[in-house]
User: Fold this.
Amino acid sequence: MKVCREFYFDAAHHLENYEGECEKLHGHTYKLEVVVEGDIKKDGMVMDFSDLKKAVEEKIIKELDHSNLNDFFDNPTAEKIAEWIHAQLEKEIPVHSTRLWEGVGKWVEIEKSTTSD
Assistant:
């Protein structure tokens, strides 16, 4: 079974070696969907929503919210950010997939079998 929770954070970035508006510093409100997968445990849950919230807020939101993403990533594309988020969460929770929305109408998704080391 899969369980999902949404999170939001605001951050700025610019894309290096890119020709167009995104080469300039700009910001987004990111929406992050985190899906965990597992069996229903004795408590009737795959994972408590509050435990999921705590893990994501401590490992991801606390780090990235209201930051300049270029301080964390070389050329912070949505793909690189999503990959990093997924890798961080895999260390803590049974994450199945992460979907990162960069504003409205644009997203990238990564599933556990597609992470690179």
In short: Strands lie at 2-13, 26-37, 67-68, 95-102, 107-111. The first helix runs from residue 49 to 64.
